[in-house]
């Protein structure tokens, strides 16, 4: 069963490729605990089946980049893009798309967190392994306030405009 509105997101580990070292993060892949990341924050999360895939690269991620300022103006602290890819791939995709810190490119390399969310699907028959369903969610202090799960092959309800309108 998948996570529902009103549920607390499961804890888990997501990886992020850090481009610039800080006091708390080294350059390269760093792991973060979801419970720590969501504490006291409003997160606009969207998940994609894979980095560099056609719909994800041409429409889904660019929509969130385009509306990032508007989302933040409505109280969103961070925008997350989660995919079942490794942190190196997510970092490269972020550089390719010109993310520049507007979206956190978070890797769920083994799909462990995606499985806990109940939003995984198996594309092994097509040689792609377990992936995330395409969805968006508004998470406030760890609790799901909005959840928009796409039908297979669609990008109709998890786009940035829909989530922005749900913040109104």
TrEMBL record:
<dbReference type="GO" id="GO:0034599">
    <property type="term" value="P:cellular response to oxidative stress"/>
</dbReference>
<keyword id="KW-0676">Redox-active center</keyword>
<dbReference type="GO" id="GO:0008379">
    <property type="term" value="F:thioredoxin peroxidase activity"/>
</dbReference>
<comment type="function">
    <text>Thiol-specific peroxidase that catalyzes the reduction of hydrogen peroxide and organic hydroperoxides to water and alcohols, respectively. Plays a role in cell protection against oxidative stress by detoxifying peroxides.</text>
</comment>
<dbReference type="InterPro" id="IPR013766">
    <property type="entry name" value="Thioredoxin_domain"/>
</dbReference>
<keyword id="KW-0560">Oxidoreductase</keyword>
<keyword id="KW-0049">Antioxidant</keyword>
<feature type="domain" description="Thioredoxin">
    <location>
        <begin position="3"/>
        <end position="168"/>
    </location>
</feature>
<protein>
    <recommendedName>
        <fullName>Glutathione-dependent peroxiredoxin</fullName>
        <ecNumber>1.11.1.27</ecNumber>
    </recommendedName>
</protein>
<dbReference type="GO" id="GO:0042744">
    <property type="term" value="P:hydrogen peroxide catabolic process"/>
</dbReference>
<dbReference type="Pfam" id="PF08534">
    <property type="entry name" value="Redoxin"/>
</dbReference>
<dbReference type="GO" id="GO:0045454">
    <property type="term" value="P:cell redox homeostasis"/>
</dbReference>
<comment type="similarity">
    <text>Belongs to the peroxiredoxin family. Prx5 subfamily.</text>
</comment>
<dbReference type="InterPro" id="IPR036249">
    <property type="entry name" value="Thioredoxin-like_sf"/>
</dbReference>
<dbReference type="InterPro" id="IPR013740">
    <property type="entry name" value="Redoxin"/>
</dbReference>
<dbReference type="GO" id="GO:0005737">
    <property type="term" value="C:cytoplasm"/>
</dbReference>
<feature type="active site" description="Cysteine sulfenic acid (-SOH) intermediate">
    <location>
        <position position="56"/>
    </location>
</feature>
<dbReference type="InterPro" id="IPR037944">
    <property type="entry name" value="PRX5-like"/>
</dbReference>
<keyword id="KW-0575">Peroxidase</keyword>
